[in-house]
Design goal:
By secondary structure, the chain is of the alpha/beta class. It has 8 helices and 14 strands. The structure holds S-adenosylmethionine (SAM). Belongs to the methyltransferase superfamily. PrmA family.
Length: 315
């Protein structure tokens, strides 16, 4: 699997803010090199192990490197990232050189580096996502704990698109439904669906790494043991009558999915779509109206939109 690496040369004081911006934009993790730490390291007896050449460019300040799965379309999110970093100066933060560079990397040892930035996320009164390696005590009996180790798959729960989708699932699920989770990533939406009362859940992803991560996460959550996880391209070749179809994928891929979602959805069912950046709302809505859907509810967080759609049934 390939990853897109986005690095920003900045100042030490902007590290946390820039890391947050990257995680909110969908990074699976960030790695940080801070000249202040390196100074300490160089005076460390083991400092000789460090290849000083490689850190020459961060002799001053710091470098935040974020890793995005190749399924995230960077041209769509980079303008927002740049804008948000530039905005930090208005909060009085020194953003240093603010030089941004891109490259492609292959899966490597960064895989676990991001874990220290991943903490429990309270999605709502009913759903909290807790990293597998953290202790957490629920605040009430209503609070369901989704235990996750997303590994290299998308779906830590921290991304606005995942949050919006979870909120939409809370609205439509009443208990006893059949759910199709298209582009399951870490499996977070399937696990939440089971907690919210779904009877049968089918989770699909094109990416084998995600399929494996989702299977492992089902095993971490007893409620989701019977979720059927499989590799599949969207709903191609699937023939199920579902009460709920949920897809948190890029806008252009959602448009491809729409006809098969219509075919697999009961007349009374709900189709939840998320992952839609503001600029793409119009083309997605055009495609869903053309297929025979209407919008029931709209959800928005920052620049991201999600919709609950119903079939438009003529009286
Ligand atoms: C934005 S992530 C969403 C993950 C998770 N469902 C969530 O809400 O956090 C989108 C997922 O869709 C998967 N995906 C992309 N194209 C796909 C396709 N054609 N068929 C199935 N899955 C696909 C990606 O591998 C990725 O895991």
């Amino acid at each position: 699997m390939k990853w897109n690496q986005v690095s920003v040369l900045t100042s030490s004081e902007a590290i946390d803010a820039i890391s947050n911006i990257m995680m909110e934009a969908g990074a699976n993790g960030v790695a940080i090199e801070d000249a202040l730490d390196l100074e300490n390291f160089k005076s460390d007896p083991y400092g000789e192990l460090l290849d000083i050449e490689t850190i020459d460019h961060i002799r001053e300040g710091a470098e935040v490197t974020a890793y995005f799965p190749e399924t995230i379309f960077l041209p769509e999110i980079l303008p927002t990232i740049k804008h948000k970093i530039a905005e930090l100066t208005s909060f009085g933060l020194d953003i240093g050189k603010n030089e941004l560079s891109l490259s492609e990397v292959v899966e490597s040892d960064w895989a676990t580096a991001w874990k220290k930035y991943y903490h429990p996320v309270m999605i709502s009164r009913y759903l909290t996502i807790v990293p597998d390696w953290q202790e957490y005590t629920p605040h009430s009996e209503d609070e369901h704990i989704i235990t996750l180790d997303p590994g290299m798959a998308f779906g830590t729960g921290t991304h606005p698109t995942t949050r919006l989708t979870l909120q939409a699932l809370e609205v439509v699920l009443r208990g006893g439904e059949t759910v199709l989770d298209v582009g399951t990533g870490s499996g977070v939406l399937s696990i939440a669906s089971k907690y919210l009362g779904a009877k049968e859940v089918y989770a699909y992803d094109l990416d084998e790494v995600a399929v494996q991560a989702a299977q492992e996460n089902m095993a971490l959550n007893p409620v989701a043991q019977d979720v059927h996880v499989a590799a599949n391209n969207l709903l191609v070749g699937i023939d199920t009558q579902a009460d709920v179809i949920v897809a948190n994928i890029l806008a252009d891929i959602i448009i491809e999915l729409v006809p098969d979602a219509y075919r697999n959805l009961k007349d009374t069912g709900s189709f939840i779509i998320s992952g839609i950046i503001e600029d793409k709302v119009d083309i997605v809505l055009e495609a869903v109206y053309a297929a025979g859907f209407e919008v029931d509810q709209t959800f928005k967080q920052k620049d991201w939109f999600a919709f609950i759609l119903n079939k438009k049934i003529e009286e």
